[in-house]
Amino acid sequence: MWNAILRRRRSGDGPRELTGRTVLLCLIAFFAVVAGVNAVMIRAAISTFGGIETANAYQAGLAFAREIAAVEAQDALHWQVRASVVTNGGDALIDIVANDESGQPLTGLAATALLAHPTDRRFDHEVTLTERTAGRYQGRTGKVAGQWSLITELSRNDRRMFRSRNRVFLR
């Protein structure tokens, strides 16, 4: 039996012999493919990352403490604010209706809205809203579609009085 196997190898009819050169070439090819895939993935990760979220953790902690105080002051006002976003041909119309606790329209406020992209700040749309009627603020932004966070702010004399964050889906 062994003689038949050896005769087939010598005549070239059997399977090829595995040499050191073949193993070396296979290893080099394998690691070249792994390195190539890693290079593509690293490039994709770096080019799609919008930046660090917090540059200074201490300052972020102080900002969080100020945010808590602002939320408590906002809750004490008992304002009734409704925000809506309507898309028309891709453009988004942002509409905010603001009333005080007795239902009277809130006038003379500076209103802004931010359509914040959930994963990349570079795609955010900031919209300055104008007061159309008493207590009604509107603004328009360009073509947006998908999932966004709508952040609305109402301020008076450069002091933020109200802030709201809501998830919206636009088509």
Topology:
Layout: H1 2-11, H2 20-48, H3 57-77, E1 80-88, E2 91-99, E3 110-116, E4 125-133, E5 136-143, E6 146-156, E7 159-170
Antiparallel strand pairs: 1-2, 2-5, 3-4, 3-6, 4-5, 6-7
Q: What this model shows, in words?
A:
This protein has 171 residues and is an alpha+beta fold. The chain has a domain at 80-170: Immunoglobulin-like. Helices cover 35% and strands 38% of the residues. The chain has helices at residues 2-11, 20-48, 57-77, and strands at residues 80-88, 91-99, 110-116, 125-133, 136-143, 146-156, 159-170. Strands 1-2-5-4-3-6-7 form a 7-stranded antiparallel beta sheet. The chain is elongated.
Features:
Immunoglobulin-like, elongated, single chain, 171 residues, 38% strand, alpha+beta, 7-stranded antiparallel beta sheet
Q: How are the strands of the largest sheet arranged?
A: 1-2-5-4-3-6-7
Element pattern in H and E? HHHEEEEEEE
Distance between the termini: 74 Å
Low-confidence stretches: none
- Please identify the top-level CATH class of the domain at 80-170: Mainly Beta
CATH architecture of the domain at 80-170: Sandwich
- The helicity comes to 25-40%
CATH topology of the domain at 80-170: Immunoglobulin-like
Report the mean per-residue pLDDT as an integer. 88
Q: Provide the gyration radius in Å.
A: 31 Å
Q: Which strand-content bin applies to the residues?
A: 35-45%
Shape: elongated
How many beta strands in the DSSP annotation?
7
